[in-house]
Amino acid sequence: MRLEVEHLSKERDAPPGCGYGGAWRRIWLKYCWTAYACACHVRSHGGTGYGGLGMLVTEFSTDVVEAPERFALWEETTTQSHMRNRLHSDNHEDFRAKMRILDLTEVQVAALAYSHLEIARTEKLIRQSDPEVYLINYFLGGEGIISLDGGDTTLRAGDLVVLDSSRPYRGGVRADPDRWSHVTVQFPRGLLPLPEKTAQSLFAVPISGRSGMGGGFARWLADLNARAGEFTPADIPTLTSVTLDLLASVIARCLEAEAALTPEARRRVLRTRINAFVEQHLADPAMTPQTIADAHHISLRHLQQLLAEDDTSPAAWIRHRRLERCRLDLANPRLNARPVQAIAERWGFTSLAHFSRLFRVTYGVPPRDYRQLPPKACANRQHLCVD
């Protein structure tokens, strides 16, 4: 999606719901819908997306204006998309940056890219405006530094860090402007299913996103960004709850305080771990409900009860996910030369006849015929396969 900025000589009235006045830029999303930027806060109004992006996604780049204006545009945009900070960059004269926002209403997931940026959240700015939110940064590349209460902490690719809009901090990032440098998650503090005092001791402390629960949460954030255009408003409650529960579990695990999680939150976190385990082992034909239960140190009956909440069983869920992976491969024109049997084996099916029968029952056509369907006919066929 390309943004084109038309500079207006006169001040405009603020769009409904915006609490800021002043100079406005009207931003046109070419071929798609019109977005407005109050101090350049980009928010889409209507439409179904363009270029693979869904209606929950907005993309922004400083390339839409001339080089001398780019840093000011970024300052205005991020003031509204995130919170007020004091910004500085060594590349002030030509600040190349981009941002992709996945808006889940109360939770916002944003990917950012720039070469160098220093950020200061001062006590004065907090007094002037405090949204009372947590901000989680997951570093995808480059290096960063965060300063809180007089101490400096270095952050590298794979690190997670939690910040609070009500506490002063300073930070800096150096990265490749052509690649996403980090993913941020922002949400009101009250949404985290942990007491505030439980989370406070981890503020500005690097959390590894390379393994364990931190790794699971990091992969979830990377996947949210990569698949942002696939989501619809109907997905918002699930995406929100999984994001918050995974984060709470990461914090609780770091503090050895999982008991602070509510039973409902612990159950959702366990289900998310199970889902991730299934996805990682789909290609292994030896994966069974028992191996899943053993890997998570629960009984097979407990596993069955967890999946029964979604009206399915462990075996049916495994088949469903394997069939979905096969369906996506069969609908991919770049894989047309790959035999159906190879696709089935890639996702854990050892018998072509068994796979073909399951596929036909689930999607209504044999896999070879499905491959010939037009793209629109292949969409939205994610039916749960029967027991």
The number of helical elements comes to 13
* Class derived from helix and strand content: alpha+beta
Helix percentage:
25-40%
Strand coverage percent: 15-25%
**SS elements, strand count:** 16
- What pattern of helices and strands is seen along the backbone? EEEEEHEEEEHEEEEEEHEHHHHHHHHHH
Overall pLDDT: 80
* Main sheet properties: 7 strands, antiparallel
User: Low-confidence parts, pLDDT < 50 over ≥5 residues?
Assistant: 1-54, 379-387
- The span between the termini is 42 Å
Shape: globular
Lateral strand order in the biggest sheet: 5-7-8-15-10-13-16
Described by its quaternary structure, the protein is: single chain
Radius of gyration over C-alpha positions, nearest whole angstrom: 23 Å
